[in-house]
Write a structure and sequence with these properties.
Blueprint (H helix, E strand, L loop, with lengths): L8 H48 L3 H49 L1
Length: 109
């Protein structure tokens, strides 16, 4: 059993082709919009990254201050270790001289 057709075959083909063209145009527009959106997002991320790197960069004055602070820290550690070494050597010498003095005092008795 054949159902009645409400439109002619030529009109049906014309509407179908027109819809295919509209679909192709819509896909192309969505593609352009997506590509432009991704490009803008890429530019935004790159711009924010570059701006952050620029703002984080130290000025020459800040670099100098940081270098001086680092030098002070290293020198304080060197002085501390030198003092510890001097204390150890003086304590060792005192033990040696102290035992020698006891030996000398024992000899005089």
């Amino acid at each position: 059993m054949e159902y009645p057709r409400l439109i002619e075959q030529g009109a049906h083909n014309y509407i179908q082709e027109a819809l295919k063209i509209c679909h192709g145009n819509r896909v192309q527009i969505y593609s352009y919009a997506l590509n432009i959106g991704v490009f803008i997002l890429f530019l935004a991320i790159t711009g924010v990254t570059l701006y952050y790197c620029y703002k984080r960069k130290l000025t020459p004055y800040e670099k100098r201050q940081k270098m001086l602070k680092d030098q002070d820290y290293v020198l304080s550690k060197i002085r501390y270790h030198q003092a510890e070494k001097a204390n150890l050597s003086s304590a060792f010498m005192e033990r040696l001289t102290g035992s020698e003095k006891r030996d000398q005092m024992n000899q005089f008795r």
